[in-house]
Amino acid sequence: MNPEQYVQDKAAASGSSFYYAFLFLPPPRRAAITAFYAFCREVDDVVDETHDAGVAATKLAWWRKEVASAFAGQPSHPVTKALMPHVQAYDIRIEHLNAVIEGCEMDLQQTRYLDFPGLARYCHLVAGVVGEVASGIFGRTQSQTVEYAHKLGLAMQLTNIIRDVGDDARRGRIYLPVNELQQFGVKANEILLRSKPWGYGERFTALMRFQAERAHRLYDEAQALLPEADRAAQKPGLMMANIYRALLVEIEHENFQVLHQRIALTPLRKLWIAMKTNWRGR
Fold first, then answer.
1. Residue 25 DSSP SS3
2. How far is CA 251 from CA 189, 207, 230, 272, in A?
3. In a domain, 104, yes or no
4. Do residue 137 and residue 273 come from a single domain?
5. Is 277 found in the same domain as 150?
6. How many C-alpha atoms does 139 have within 13 Å on its Cβ side?
7. DSSP track, 36-98
8. Any idea what the Cα angle at residue 87 is, between residues 83 and 91, rounded to 5°?
9. Are the beta carbons of 177 and 113 closer than 8 angstroms?
10. Given 41, 59, 94, which residue is the final one in a domain?
């Protein structure tokens, strides 16, 4: 299997909403974003699939060395071999890849965030930087598009956090800020136990509604920041935003029943949203 096929399979196997947006890109840009997304998946999987934190830290350290070697002209992993031919054309820099690794390292170092600014720093590394790179690959001409991409990345990561409360609790992680748990009278151990008798009461629902409202505000703010000159080029990002926002609405309709299940959109619905966004341009 050549590097290009490896990253294609990695992206397709993830089932991510990102994959549906990639389908609408011209081949060179699609190849670049697929390789970059595969890199993000490889690094993220280290944390999610490695149960020993020491082993995971060693693997992330290996990825740091691999990134350095790749930018020195000696990639060894199929992902970096597929990605490196695109870095100059789309201004993908070593600090972008290292930021993604740093964000995943944070998952090994802490399982709680005291407040939203602390959580936003984590989101910047694992989603904002990803949005910045993706916007460059999609094609941007305006500096404000970078700000749009960071804001959109934050909104999408918060949607992930809302969706994954139960999955994260199984791993001993809570991304909802501690001071906001306290604000709504929700105890950390209640989330970690994922106990239905308490879990879907008024306190938890109010906490989650607060999280969802913030995410919706960020989607609106991101949309307002996108310059008209870059709107057509950024359609893949808008597709992802619309898919993620539809997921957020679905979670709201399910009354935030996220502790015992993972709410998701069907592949057909994701594709339909992507196609509709492509036609409408927003």
1. coil
2. 22, 14, 31, 19
3. no
4. yes
5. yes
6. 14
7. HHHHHHHHHHHHHH---HHHHHHHHHHHHHHHHHHHTT---SHHHHHHGGGTTTTT--HHHHH
8. 145
9. yes
10. 94
Clarify whether residues 74 and 149 are in a common domain. no
Q: Is 95 within 8 Å of 132 (Cβ atoms)?
A: no
Q: Give, as one character, the DSSP assignment of residue 114.
A: S
What length does the chain have? 282
Tens digit of pLDDT per residue, the chain (282 long)?
799 989 888 887 766 777 778 888 899 999 999 999 999 999 999 988 888 889 999 999 999 999 999 999 999 999 999 999 999 999 999 999 999 999 999 999 888 999 999 999 999 999 999 999 999 999 999 999 999 999 999 999 999 999 999 999 998 899 999 999 999 999 998 898 876 555 568 899 999 999 999 999 999 999 999 999 999 999 999 999 999 999 999 999 999 999 988 999 998 999 899 899 888 867
Long-range contacts of 242-247 (CB under 8 A, 24+ apart): 242/273, 242/274, 242/276, 242/277, 243/17, 243/20, 243/21, 243/270, 243/273, 243/274, 244/17, 244/155, 244/156, 244/159, 245/155, 245/159, 245/216, 245/219, 246/273, 247/17, 247/159, 247/163
Q: For the chain, how many structural domains are there in total?
A: 2
With vertex at residue 40, the alpha carbon angle to CA 143 and CA 257, rounded to the nearest 5 degrees, is: 100
**CATH label of the domain that carries residue 126:** 1.10.600.10
Closest residue by Cα to residue 77 from 25, 149, 10 = 10
Residue 99 lies in a domain: no
Place of tokens 């031919």: 85
Pull the structure tokens for residue 102. 């740093």
Residue 28 lies in a domain: yes
- Domain region containing 10: 1-94
